Amino acid sequence: MEVVGFWFNPNVHPLLEYRRRLTGTEEVCEITDVKSVVDESYDPAGWFALVTGTEESRCSRCIGHRLERTAQEAVSQGCDAFSTTLSISPWQDHEAIQAQGALAAERHGVEFVYEDLRPLYPESRRLSREWGLYRQKYCGCLVSEWERYRGS
Ligand code: SF4
Q1: What confidence category does residue 56 fall into, taking pLDDT thresholds of 50, 70 and 90?
Q2: What average pLDDT score do residues 92-115 get?
């Protein structure tokens, strides 16, 4: 199986955090010898407009937006399927990942592969420490940053 890494994260705020994570992604692709494609279009205002004022949950809309773009890129890269690194996180809404992935797959005619990778999360922490990679402290958006630090 040949893997293509893809970056699209307008949900990561603020800009300097976005840049730190992008650098980490590029580093891990280099270490693992994975081709990476980066969509650096970064529009936080557009992202806020997309996820607010709707009955659907903020995270579901956010995940859907990113998987939609990923499915589109998978087709343009000639991939048979797409997936997401979100599936290794114990903090993410895995039902939303599966539902939004399936919707994006249907819209773009490309398979969505979901696997519950949460058991591998401790190993991902170990490897990222070994490789000296930056580790995010909160999910991505300003709301998640507030949720992470409001008690401290
Ligand atoms: S908490 Fe994470 S998944 Fe939810 S809206 Fe914010 S960045 Fe997106």
Answers
A1: confident
A2: 98
pLDDT at 53 over 90: no
d(CA 128, CA 2): 22
H or E element, residue 112: strand 111-112
Q: What is the DSSP string of 46-109?
A: HHHHHHSSSSS-HHHHHHHHHHHHHHHHHHHTT-SEE--GGGG-TTS-HHHHHHHHHHHHHHHT
In this structure, the residue with its CA closest to atom 6 of ligand 1 is: 141
Segment 21-31 mean pLDDT = 97
Instruction: Report d(CA 93, CA 77) in Å as an integer.
Output: 27
Residue with CA closest to ligand 1 atom 1: 144
What percentage of the chain exceeds 90 in pLDDT? 95
| CA 93/CA 116 separation, integer angstroms | 11
Domain boundaries, the chain: 4-149
**92 CA distance to ligand 1 centroid (A)?**
8
Residue 61 near residue 96, CB atoms below 8 Å: no
